[in-house]
Every structure is written in structure tokens, then in C-alpha cells.
């Protein structure tokens, strides 16, 4: 006689409560030949005929996790994760590729220090300013088409950068490239969040790769750019980027699954009307102009003078626009950055911990590359070779981080990351142009990528596992927006410090002073990441293989429901109402 769904659920709960020592009670087959998941059968008995405990029976299931249904095969799944990693890496990849050839570009196009900084800062600025708005666009009009369009656009405009003839052309097109990168990140986050709903080792691995995009993109961009520039010239680096992203675009047509935020049956016309009605155009404009004016004033202040009327005007107007943006988001019914997302205490403090560290990382990488070119007179290829250990270490640490998230307290990982950041930047301030590479630069590169990998793995896993599913894409978009804008502000601030120090009499006798002060900005930023660590309350994240067997780590009750198909069907019916 078949038990009722309520009894099955209660039975499953009691099994889990008793642990591995509890024995699964025999039950009969359900209707239509379905099993209730704990039925005693010949397969659930040992060779001696005795019944296998429920816990051990469940542990025979694959602990790795099942392939998401949206992927036809494992090859498509791996290719998609690679594409998603490319999406989050696009902005930092371009910044890294540009950072090691800035001296060559500056000499060729006759650029000032501020204009050189804007090659990378403009990309980060527009990527951050447009990302939330384009995230709304992707959810309403289609994640897949926006992703493919963004990849193709990135390839086209990278090619246009290769033919730049003046500083204005260079900086403006680099800014447009930032918009292209903003098109691909929100769809990637949305699809990954929907595909990997259940915590598992498979999800940990996928998000570990995804998290590697930001820090490792910068390093690999630097290396490939250095090789291309050595063989040809700096323009070849951007042609190489255009070719790579053209290949990625073709791959995306096959690899990106159609996982959309809207109902499949909803017509395009209705979605377009919804977009026009709900898109936060005011918030988008306030973000773009607010952050743009603020960053521009910080960057241009040292060269044009902090007392110059246009610098003061840009600084004040930029800050006022950002304040207005905060108030606007509180009253607009469909805001770009809903205030309620910040009510999650851990999310807020994790962001406040990881953001300064990433700002320090990007700023230090930029000035280290510039230092190698200008102070040490290294060629772009030599710079790339010097940065190679960071790429190798980054891959290793990323695998380690993805493997220990479910075993080591994640607050401890954040602490280790912050310590690594500050140690890396202290080493850079102590070096001189003739210092031994292995004594200062090498350990600094190894330590900085520890901070980046640990921080990114923790924050991305928190967004994709601990937050409700309807908030994951939003939180991921906010995360990437803040990191991009933070990178632009960090580059602007460190440039202001560098240019100011370069004009002092002391810098005439000691050319290291401007670089030291630029690296000290990174020390201050990495130290700021410690301020909010005491308020972070994190344990482990992601399933251990043992916990993954049950299907959840959060509660035994959820596992019990997973053992009762009838209870699941009732739950499913409620959700569809």
C-alpha cells in the first residue's frame, strides 16, 4: 500500500535525522512505476542480503553533480564555462594588453600621462557605468543575442583601436570597448546562475573558472600583447585581440544555451514594450555622467591644476550626480541598483572587503607594467615574461580556491587574501630600478594573485549560492559594476598621485618617488579591505562531496523533501500557481 506524500516526506526526514546508522524502511512502488527514492530493492541490499543504510545508499550517487539540462553534452558545457570566463575577463584582458604597451602607444601618438591612463581607465569606467542598464536589456530582450552581439562588437572595436591615429581616437574607442564588455557579463551571470541552481562540486568548479576571469584576464592579456608587440608592433596586439574575439563569437553561437529570464511564449513586441516602460534611463545617465566626471576630474587635476574652474566643476557635479543617483534608486519602481539588495548584511560587507583589494590589484598591475617599461627599459615581451609567473600561480591558486571553499571557513580565505594584497604592495614600494626581480617583483606577483583568486571565488560563490535565485543576476551585475567603476577610480587616483609626485624637486633626483607613491595608493586600498572583515559572517560555501549526495548543505529538511518525489510534485504545483 502506497504511503501518502506527507508520510513519505516525514519518513525521509526521520531517515536523515538518524544519519547513516538509520535503515531505510521498505515501501512499495508508487503509481506509474515511479520509485519513492528509498524503496528497498535487490540493488539496495548488500551481497549478504542485508539492507544498506539510507546514507550509504545515497552516497552511491555521483557526488560531482549532474550536467545542467540546458547543455546537450559535456563539451558544450565546458565551452560555455570558457565563454563565460572570457566574458568576465574581457575588460581586464584589454586593460592588461594595453598596460604593457602604454609607453609605446604614448610615444607613437604623443599622449600625456593622463591620456595614457585613460586607455585602460575609460574601458573600466564605461564597463561599470553601462553594465546594469545592459543587464536589464539582456533580461528583457534576450541573454543569448545580447551576449553574441557584445562579443562581435568587442572584436570589431578592438580592430578599430589598432588603427588609432591620435589620443582622442584611442581613448574614445577604448571607452566604447568598455560598453561591449558590459554587454556580455550580465548574460553570462544570468545563464550560469540559472544553469547551476543546486550546489555541487560541479558548480564549484564552474564558478571557480568564472571567478578567475577578472584577475587572470589582466595577466594573460599582458602576455599575449607582449608577444604580438615584440614580433610586430603595439597595433598588432589589438589585431590579435580582434581575431581572438572573432573566434569566440563564432564559438558562442554554438555554446551559449537559450536560457532566458522571460517566459518562452512571450512575444518580442511585449518584451520591447516592457523594456521601454521599465528601463531606468535616468539612473543610467546619472551613473555614466557621475562616475565619468568624477574620474576625469581626479585624473586631470594634477596636470590642469586642482584650482582650475573646470576641474572643480567636474568634481562637484560628478559627486552631486552620484548622490542624486542614490536617491533616485530609492524612489524609482524599477531601479538599476535596488536598495533592498544591500539589506543582505554579508553581501554588503563582502563587497566592501573585496572592492578595495581589487582596486589595489588593478592599480598596482598598471604601475608595475609602466615601471618595467620606463624605469627598467624592458621591452613589452620582457614585461610579459616577467608577468608569466603570476598567470601560472593564478591558475594554481584558482583550482585550490575552488577545492577548499566547502572545507575552509570562507572568512579566513578573505583574511588571507587581504594579507596577501598588502604584502604584495609593500614589496613594490621597497624595490628600486636595479633591484633583483626574484627578491621583489616575483613574490609580489605571486602574493597579489592569491588575494585576487581567494576574494573573487568567495564573493562569486556567495552571490550564486547564498542569495535567492531571483537576486543572483542582479547581485552579480552590481558586483561587476562596482569592481569596474572601482578600477577606474583607482587608476585615476593613482595617476593623480603619480603626476603630482613627478613634478616635485625630489623626483628629479630620485625617479622612483612617483612610482613609490603610486604603489602606496595600492597599500592604502588593500589596507582598507581589513576595515570590514570583522563584520563578515561566513562559514563554508559549496557542497563537500558527502553533502552533495543529499543535494543540499543548508538543512536536512530540504534533503528529506528531495527523497520524496510526491512531496516534490506538491511543491512544484504550488510554485506554478
From TrEMBL:
Annotated compartments: Membrane
GO terms assigned for molecular function: transmembrane transporter activity
Every Major facilitator superfamily (MFS) profile domain range: 80-541
Location of the region described as Disordered in the Swiss-Prot/TrEMBL record: 1-60, 543-577
Main location: membrane
A Pfam cross-reference name: MFS_1
Signal peptide: none
Spans traversing the lipid bilayer: 145-163, 169-193, 205-224, 236-257, 278-302, 308-328, 349-371, 383-405, 412-430, 436-456, 477-498, 518-536
Keyword list, A-Z: Membrane, Transmembrane, Transmembrane helix
Keyword S-adenosyl-L-methionine appears in the UniProt entry: no
Ranges of Basic and acidic residues composition bias in the record: 20-34, 44-53, 544-559
Topology of this chain in the membrane: Multi-pass membrane protein
Gene3D superfamilies membership: MFS general substrate transporter like domains (1.20.1250.20)
GO CC terms of this entry: membrane
Domain of life: Eukaryota
Name of the protein in its database record: Major facilitator superfamily-domain-containing protein
